[in-house]
Amino acid sequence: MTRIKLTLACPQALAEQMSEFLLDCEQLRGGFTAWHANGHGADFATASLREQVRGSVHVFLLTAIIDEAGLAALLASLRAQFRASHIRYWTEPVLDFGDLM
Description:
Elements: E1 3-11, H1 15-23, E2 33-39, H2 49-54, E3 57-67, H3 71-81, E4 88-93
Antiparallel strand pairs: 1-3, 1-4, 2-3
């Protein structure tokens, strides 16, 4: 079974809605990790004046380890639910995954 690390970055305003949606996703039965971060980039179209001055925007990051077979369905569900240009995602191969027990 091939596992993939999926990372999602979305605006803080969507943090609760995104978390609730992902908690109900079948592909994420194993859960996910979320944290608040600062995003740096060239697109500040939706940034507040404070964020523009600071040079970063507050973002909400979520990371999950999922089976590769479920990735396409999860991304399709996310696209259907969240039609926003400021939600980014990326994937990475997972070489190993487990508990230290």
